[in-house]
C-alpha cells in the first residue's frame, strides 16, 4: 500500500513525531533514535503504550528513553486505535481506560492495528532507520492485546516482551488463536495482585503462546510496571534478544 511520511522536526533528533499518510487514514507515530554507532543501523524495539496512555504521554517517553539507554536500540511507537492524535480530545487516565475498555469489548480494531504497525515498520525500515534483522516487540497491558496479533502476523519481529493482559475483557477467541500462531521467543509477566485482569485469564494467554521458548514471571502488586525488578527483566530480555541476533 502506498504511503507518505511527514516528519515533525528532523529525523536526526533524539526523538521526533511523524504522520504516516495512507490511502484511508493517518497513522501517528514517534521514533526515538538510538545512540550513533559507526554507521551501523541500530536494532529496533516496537513499543506499544498502555490503554489509558498515548505515544507521547510522559510514561511512554520515559519508557522509550529507558529502552534506548538500556538496549541500545531505536524505538518506534504508534498511537492506539482511539488514542493520542487519533482522537479530538484528550481524557483523564481513568476515563480513557473506561473508553478503551468499551471499545475493546465492542470492536477492538485488531486488524487495523496490525496493518498500521506493519506499515509503520515498513516505513522505518525503508528509510534505513533500523536493522531489519533485529526487531523486537515491547508492550504490556494493551501492548500485549495488540502485540500478540502483530507478532503472529509479522515474521520480522524476533522476540516479544509482554504481559499484564488476559481474556477477561473479551476478544478471547481471537487472542488465543493469534497466540497459538506466535512462535517467537516470549517473556510474559503477570502481576499477582492485578485489579484489572485475573491470574487465570492472563495464564490462559500465556499457555496459548505457540513459542517453544516462552517464560512466565509473576511479580507482586497491581496493574503497573512498578514492582522491583519488573522493568529490568523486560529490558534485559530485549537486550539479550539483540545480542543473540
Automatic annotation (TrEMBL):
UniProt-recorded name of the protein: Alpha/beta hydrolase
Keyword entries, A-Z: Hydrolase
Gene3D superfamilies the UniProt entry points to: alpha/beta hydrolase
Zinc-finger keyword on record: no
An annotated Gene Ontology molecular function: carboxylic ester hydrolase activity
SUPFAM superfamilies according to UniProt: alpha/beta-Hydrolases
InterPro entries: AB_hydrolase_fold (IPR029058), FrsA_esterase (IPR050261)
Amino acid at each position: 500500500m502506498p504511503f507518505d511520511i511527514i516528519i515533525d522536526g528532523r529525523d536526526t533528533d533524539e526523538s521526533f513525531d511523524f504522520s504516516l499518510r495512507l490511502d484511508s487514514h493517518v497513522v501517528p507515530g514517534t521514533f526515538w533514535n538510538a545512540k550513533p554507532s559507526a554507521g551501523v543501523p541500530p536494532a529496533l524495539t516496537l513499543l506499544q503504550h498502555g490503554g489509558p496512555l498515548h505515544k507521547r504521554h510522559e510514561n511512554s517517553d520515559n519508557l522509550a528513553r529507558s529502552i534506548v539507554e538500556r538496549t541500545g536500540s531505536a524505538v518506534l511507537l504508534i498511537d492506539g486505535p482511539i488514542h493520542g492524535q487519533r482522537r479530538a480530545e484528550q481524557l483523564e487516565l481513568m476515563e480513557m481506560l473506561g473508553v478503551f475498555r468499551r471499545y475493546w469489548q465492542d470492536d477492538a480494531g485488531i486488524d487495523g492495528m496490525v496493518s498500521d504497525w506493519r506499515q509503520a515498520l515498513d516505513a522505518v525500515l525503508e528509510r534505513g532507520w533500523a536493522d531489519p534483522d533485529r526487531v523486537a516487540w515491547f508492550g504490556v497491558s494493551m501492548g500485549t492485546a495488540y502485540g500478540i496479533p502483530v507478532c503472529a502476523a509479522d515474521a520480522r519481529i524476533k522476540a516479544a516482551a509482554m504481559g499484564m493482559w488476559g481474556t477477561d475483557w473479551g476478544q478471547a477467541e481471537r487472542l488465543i488463536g493469534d497466540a497459538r500462531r506466535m512462535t517467537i521467543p516470549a517473556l510474559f509477566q503477570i502481576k499477582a495482585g492485578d485489579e484489572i485482569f485475573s491470574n487465570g485469564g492472563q495464564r490462559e494467554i500465556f499457555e496459548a503462546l505457540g513459542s517453544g521458548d516462552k517464560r512466565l514471571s509473576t511479580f507482586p502488586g497491581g496493574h503497573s510496571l512498578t514492582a522491583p525488578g519488573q522493568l529490568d527483566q523486560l529490558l534485559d530480555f530485549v537486550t539479550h534478544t539483540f545480542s543473540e541476533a
